[in-house]
UniProtKB/TrEMBL annotation:
This is Queuine tRNA-ribosyltransferase. Substrate binds at residues 90-94, 144, 193, 220. It comes from the Bacteria. Pathway: tRNA modification; tRNA-queuosine biosynthesis. The gene is tgt. Its cofactor is Zn(2+). The keyword Ribonucleoprotein does not apply. Residues 251-257, 275-279 are annotated as: RNA binding. Belongs to the queuine tRNA-ribosyltransferase family. It catalyses: 7-aminomethyl-7-carbaguanine + guanosine(34) in tRNA = 7-aminomethyl-7-carbaguanosine(34) in tRNA + guanine. Zn(2+) binds at residues 308, 310, 313, 339.
Length: 374
């Protein structure tokens, strides 16, 4: 993987990530394809209608079903899904933590029960890498010890100690396997933890960023803290992260969250929000959120967003989308998801252009000005 920093506008960054499968212009939002599929879309939609150069798949879910060995036999993620661009796979630690009542982080890994059949499993730093070798992702995340907020100082301290220990084990194993010819086109990111405590974030970032990783993520946010706490934590943490490697903020968030954290120096984002909200009737637009289920849209001939050039907005009215939602028609999910993801990806492209022209501050003002009129 290569990363070049193309321009900055104060702390906002525009970069280029080159993997074995695609060239990714940053800032970038990665659509979430948890089980190798962005919900309600196929590879053609993601490629041709959205132009996404990278999507996220989930290690935990792919390991449980259909199984990482099955994926490997079927051509790994790229061959199995027919999405030829880049994949990022998260470590599965968050899902083991959040989806199972029987999740127990231990010194050497995470014990959990499958949410599908209750079977017992144990993720270690090495096993998570082995799974992701089978998946063939372009960027893999290491196992970390995630803590929900609020949490005690003792629990956060234990979290960063485990995360650092697992990170050292992970990078040593990953580089050893590369020397053996395994995962030579794959890349690996570490995950900084520490809650909203600045001293803990400093410690975690300093320890991890001293290791030979291809990029670094900020994890453990958007898990219960206030927005301003998240922003302050990101602003504090990025100063300890290398300028010449990608910075990834995991699981965040709203369009406003993206703008605020780009301003603080983040390059990469993912979140289920645009796809999940689409399915629930909430659409993102240049003037804010729209609840398409509202009765006022029943006879509205306008597109969802007059400024949007997605397939849905160029073709269909709010009235039709409202009708599809109220009828629970399957077509609604595809059209709404296309719109929301198109909005997010277009937002990132516009932001990048503003950074390249050193006018990010002006873009941010206009972004909020439009929302204030809605």
């Amino acid at each position: 993987m290569e990363f070049t920093l193309d321009a900055t506008s104060k702390n906002a960054r525009a970069g280029t990530i080159t993997t074995a499968h695609s060239t990714i212009k940053t800032p970038v939002f990665m659509p979430v394809g948890t089980i190798g599929s962005v919900k309600s879309l196929d590879a053609h939609d993601v490629l041709e209608l959205l132009g996404a150069e990278i999507i996220l798949a989930n290690t935990y879910h792919m390991y449980l079903r259909p199984g990482d060995k099955t994926v490997a036999k079927m051509g790994k993620l790229h061959g199995f899904t027919k999405y030829p661009k880049s994949f990022l796979t998260d470590s599965g630690g968050f899902q083991a933590f959040s989806l199972s009542d029987m999740s127990k982080p231990k010194t050497d890994g995470i014990e959990f029960r499958s949410h599908i059949d209750g079977s017992k499993h144990f993720f270690t730093p090495k096993k998570v890498i082995d799974i992701q070798h089978n998946l063939g992702s372009d960027i893999m995340m290491i196992l970390d010890d995630l803590v929900a907020l609020p949490a005690t100082q003792e629990r956060i301290k234990l979290s960063i100690e485990r995360t650092t220990a697992w990170a050292k084990e992970s990078i040593e194993y990953f580089r050893m396997k590369q020397k053996e010819g395994v995962g030579t086109e794959q890349n690996i990111f570490a995950i900084i933890q520490g809650g909203t405590d600045k001293a803990f974030r400093t410690k975690s970032a300093t320890e991890l960023c001293a290791l030979d990783y291809d990029g670094f993520a900020i994890g453990g946010l958007s898990v219960g803290e206030l927005n301003n706490e998240m922003y302050d934590t990101v602003e504090h943490t990025v100063q300890y992260m290398p300028k010449d490697k990608p910075r990834y903020l995991m699981g965040v968030g709203t369009p406003e969250d993206l703008i605020e954290n780009i301003e603080r120096g983040i390059d990469m984002f993912d979140c289920v929000m645009p796809t999940r909200n689409a399915r629930n009737g909430t659409l993102f637009t240049s003037f804010g959120k729209m609840n398409i289920k509202g009765a006022k849209f029943k006879e509205d001939p306008a597109p969802i967003d007059p400024e949007c050039q997605c397939l849905t907005c160029k073709t269909y009215s709010r009235a039709y989308i409202n009708h599809l939602f109220r009828s629970r028609e399957i077509t609604y999910f595809r059209l709404a998801t296309i719109h929301n993801l198109h909005y997010y990806l277009t937002l990132m492209r516009e932001v990048r252009e503003a950074i390249l022209e050193n006018r990010f501050a002006e873009y941010k003002k206009e972004f909020y000005k439009k929302r204030s009129k809605s």
